[in-house]
Design brief:
With about 120 residues, the protein is mainly alpha-helical. It has a single domain, classed as Arc Repressor Mutant, subunit A, CATH 1.10.10. It contains 5 helices and 2 strands. Strands 1-2 form a two-stranded parallel sheet. Helix 1 crosses helix 2 and helix 2 crosses helix 3. The structure holds a DNA duplex (13 and 13 nucleotides).
DNA sequence: TGGATGACCTACA
DNA sequence: CTGTAGGCCATCC
C-alpha cells in the first residue's frame, strides 16, 4: 500500500483495508484467523481474495499478518514474508500448534473476528 | 471502460 | 490428492 486513491464516497472514506487492518490488530496472541473471516468482518464475505490483497499491502507493516491463514490452515502467504520460514516460525514462537504437514491447527487456534453465528463451522478435524 | 492479477473459497471430476 | 472451473472484489495498466 503506498498511496490510497482519493475516494469521493463519504462512508468509504477509509478503504476496507483499514477495517481489515483493524481486525488483524485485534487477533490475540497465539491465535490465527482466516481470510474469509476477515472478509466477512470487513463486509466483503464474498471476496476473501481482496483480503489477501490487503495483506499484501500490509506486508512489512506492524500488523501480525502471520496470524492470517487460509481456511485450510495452510500458510499460503508465507512466501510473502521474505523468508518462507518466518511465518511458521513466528506462529510457533507464539505457541501455535502445527500439523506434520506444516499447517496450523485451526480447531485450537482459530479466532473469529465476528461473533455472528455462522452456520459454516470449521470442518477441520 | 475493460482486461489482467491476486497471500481465496467452493464445487466437481 | 490433483486439476479444472466459476465467483467474488479491489487494484493496476
Amino acid at each position: 500500500m503506498t498511496k490510497k486513491i482519493k475516494r469521493k464516497k463519504k462512508e468509504q472514506d477509509k478503504d476496507f483495508f483499514d477495517k481489515v487492518y483493524g481486525f488483524v490488530e485485534l487477533i490475540p496472541y497465539g491465535k490465527v484467523t482466516t481470510y474469509g473471516a476477515l472478509a466477512e468482518a470487513s463486509g466483503i464475505k464474498s471476496s476473501a481474495r481482496t483480503v489477501g490483497w490487503a495483506m499484501n499491502a500490509a506486508a512489512g507493516s506492524n500488523l501480525p499478518c502471520h496470524r492470517v491463514v487460509n481456511r485450510n490452515g495452510e500458510l499460503t502467504g508465507k512466501l510473502h514474508f521474505g523468508d518462507p520460514n518466518l511465518m511458521e516460525d513466528l506462529l510457533r514462537s507464539e505457541g501455535v500448534a502445527f500439523t506434520k504437514e506444516g499447517n496450523v491447527v485451526m480447531s485450537k487456534h482459530f479466532w473469529q473476528p465476528t461473533n455472528v453465528a455462522k452456520k459454516k463451522l470449521i470442518r477441520n478435524n
